[in-house]
Specification:
Structural class of chain B: mainly alpha
CATH superfamily of the largest domain in chain A: Response regulator
Largest interface: A-B, 49 and 45 residues
Shape of chain A: globular
Number of strands of chain A: 15
Number of strands of chain B: 0
Oligomer: heterodimer
Structural class of chain A: alpha/beta
Distance between the termini of chain A: 28 Å
CATH architecture of chain B: Orthogonal Bundle
Strand content of chain A: 15-25%
CATH class of the largest domain in chain A: Alpha Beta
Helix content of chain A: 25-40%
Number of domains of chain A: 2
Shape of chain B: globular
CATH topology of chain B: ABC transporter involved in vitamin B12 uptake, BtuC
Chain lengths: 354, 306
Amino acid sequence: MKLRNMLRSLVATVAIAAAGASSAQTIGYIYVGPEKDYGYNTSHDLGRQFVEKSIAGTKTLHVENIPETAEVSRVMERMIKSGASIVFATSYGYLDYAIELGKKYPKVAFMHAGGLKLGDNVGTYWANSDDAIYLGGMAAGAVSKSGKLGFIAAFPIPQVVRSINAFTLGAQAVNPKVTTTVVWTGGWLDPAKEAEAANSLIDAGVDVIGEQVDSPITIAQTAEKRGIYVVGKDVDVAKFAPKAVLTGASWNWGPTMVKVVKEIQAGTWKPSHIRGDLKDGTVVLDPFGPAVTDTVRKSILARKADILADKFEVWSGPLTRQNGAEILPAGKAMPMEMLESMDFFVKGVIGTVK
Amino acid sequence: MTAFDIVTSGFLISALRSATPLTFALVGETLTQRTGVINLGLEGQLLVGAMCAYAMTAAWGNPWLGLVAGAIAGMALSAVHAALVVGTRANQFASGLAVWMLGFGLSAYYGSSLVGRKIESFESIVPKSVADLPVLGSVIAGLTPTVVLAVLIVPVSALWLWRTRTGLRWRAVGESPEDARAAGANPSLIRIQAILLGGLLSGLGGAALSVDYTRTWAEGMSAGRGLVAVGLVIVARWNPWWTFPAALLFGGAEALSLRLQTADANVSAHLLHCLPYVASLAILTLTYVRGRVSSAPAGLRAVMDR
């Protein structure tokens, strides 16, 4: 692995050097995976392209495949030495490195994706996709004939557990009897396991699959081949599986990034936790696929309007655990801490969080 | 449907599918190691094989062309290992790692435009109605050409290694290059051939992974299977006959770890993901406890001790 990191840092050096001369308008982007993964990293790269297009005179540097190790400090420093005055550290594990480097370079602004710590010049941004996944779950519940849904996910961490619960709650809003069977793959990117997990679920009678791995693409293509449906996440992959994709919850980081960059350039920026959602457009409900009927579309869009108008809250009681124990009584909203550290499945989910 | 049914329905074919890319790589590495050369570059060869096969299939619409392209790409990359190890007598581990990184980088660079491309690929080789047959129906109906090819390549390579004169010569080179040379063989040439054959088969394994199994190209998609194959050579005790059970054991454990979750087995997923490794280790330990430790080619020990 050492060698791999060395190779990567070499590539990174060349990439940064090639980007060349310094400018007050240079912005650096660091990705943990391939920029063209058609998933999480692609969503950030689309944001980068949006920034470059929207703010005249802005130049961006970007480096992909940087592991969450001290390597990221070295890449950030090289970016700064090449003139970057703003750095977007787009992976969760980059946070401590960004904070540390923020102290060393007080004139550089750092933006971290999803962190819960701030520095004098380190801010964070993130968005809550639960609402959009809930709406995707409604599509899944409506389209499923067997009433058996599946969810393929990488690791049992709170963000993913939330997605699985939101997906299930959305589906149950349409058909109270549906269940969601969870399969963990144990890796953000392992297409062979993702395909096999999808096949296992389909063999067990599942006919709509939700997912939260690096990219929905393998699962979507497997579903297309086997004639079942998927609800995507991070980036819309409908063009690669036009029949299978029902809808999805995609990121739209561009506008948030442009806003922050403009504030920084105007000198009005104060580091904070910027949190977006379906309402402000940082999360988008993807266009519906052909399998979603007009009636279903209408009911989903009506629920979406309720969410946007604050008339409906996904995380509100009554909510019960898998074993039937009460989580929240009717009418009560979920406390923030419970939401951010979610380690339980709601009733109707089949699988273990451990 | 009971939990048992869910695990068994389609389990065998799913184990076979998981084992297929591994079998190609494993047979190739077994033959290479039989001549006294270790190639850690398998992972990189799988990746370039997968990438080139996918590109070819996407461009020409013919998965068979994809398999050929993958095999050639794997072989071409392994030529680097052959040149370094046989040509310049470089350290085999360092050279293998270099090939791995090279394959990772090249496939990532040239593969980036392939992400998300759609391909037409193999269909099942038997009519769909076969699936209704009892017991083995689902297995037979799920057979694709690469699965069949993987199953066939095992006896072919085993018979070739154990029953032909060239096979004997390869084994002789692996045991003692000096003696083999004295008997009129050319150890360097044979090792180059063995490395290239290993490259060809691992490229084919990569092609099976991208073109047939997942129908996807993603950077780093082999996810460690090449390294696993290098390890499974020991489980298979350098014997091509045992490569298939070894690959099937690993693939089966992987398939089982996913299927148990769909059957609500209520076991921690972290533990389930250890299953393939635990199973391989268990077999390894069992076979070594029963003796016959010395099935490794003697020439290979020279590499380890150096």
